Amino acid sequence: MGAVVPEVLRDLxxxxxxxxxxxxxxxxxxxxxxxxxxxxPAALExxxxxxxxxxxxxxxxxxxxxxxxxxxxxxxxxxxxPRRVRLRVGRxxxxxx
Length: 97
Fold this sequence. Notes:
Blueprint: H1 4-12, H2 14-31, H3 33-36, E1 39-45, E2 48-53, H4 56-64, H5 66-77, E3 84-89, H6 93-96
Parallel strand pairs: 2-3
Antiparallel strand pairs: 1-2
Helix pairs in contact: 2-5
């Protein structure tokens, strides 16, 4: 039973949803309060974290920090951490609310 549950969660996409929730909850700590006010994790799929930012300036700032951000996510999430981050300028999400 213990070996089956993680497989079922993965097949249903719930394991990735749980990781996405953990990322969202820790986002301010991972990127810092100022960057978190301008960015938010939008989706996690197949190890790629989509992050929306409210301007191209913040996209560039986070792009420069990607190695640091990926390392921090790996420290917190271990094997479940995203392997890549894709940044895009958007208007929705938590920062836009």
